[in-house]
Amino acid sequence: MLIDTHCHLDVSEFDADRAAVWQSAMQQQVRGLVIPAVNQASVQPILDWCTRHPNTGFALGWHPMYVDQAPQSAMAQLAAQIESVLAGPLAPQLVAIGEIGLDFYVTRANEATQIALFEAQLQLAKHYGLPVLLHVRGAIDTVLKYCRKHRVVGGIAHAFNGSLQQAQVFASLGFKCGFGGACTYTRALKIRALVEQLPLSDIVLETDAPDIPPAWLGHGVRNTPDQLKKIAEEIALIRRMPSTQIIEITGKNSIAVLPKIAHLCT
Question: Is the separation of the CB atoms in 125 and 152 below 8 Å?
């Protein structure tokens, strides 16, 4: 089944037509999606949406690009929020801790702060037995270092663009690699080779909407979760196999790594 494992449906780019966007995705056979928080301000809109849409899951966490906004009490607040959700009706829809990780592409000036919050959130994920949605841009080896140190139950390396060897290390730690619009560009030779070479059991699908639009939309155009089926079809072309098989196996992979998704997609 088609599962969008990473979609920022809560952001302002969807304020005018969020319900229609989700309806279009379902018409394109998307059975479920996961909306990751990026900071404290993003949490309540996500909870409100998921309350009304029981076939959507969510993750709670602080994105590395927002760590400079995090107050000293951020981790205590996050832990309290996780406790509150797990004690309430939305507990089945909290599928992961995320979006967490490191981003050294934009800046390393706050590296120590990024790492401190990343480690703290890995510890929370381990405490609650939840997988994690990892942001790894420009920092894959460092992310792996801390994933080895804090052995969580697994998760997804979102928007993966590392090496085959790095992907294999993630797999050994219980992670899948997320692929979306980036692999649809014919000039993205490294990512397309990785999509071809990785065991299909290590791959899950994502859009990262409204970001990372696929090639047929073009740069700067809003991405939407209804593009997931065409992304699966492009991966099928790369791997020279039926798209139905890609959709079936990546759906099973998504459920394997984010087990609470299973009941959302029935």
Answer: yes
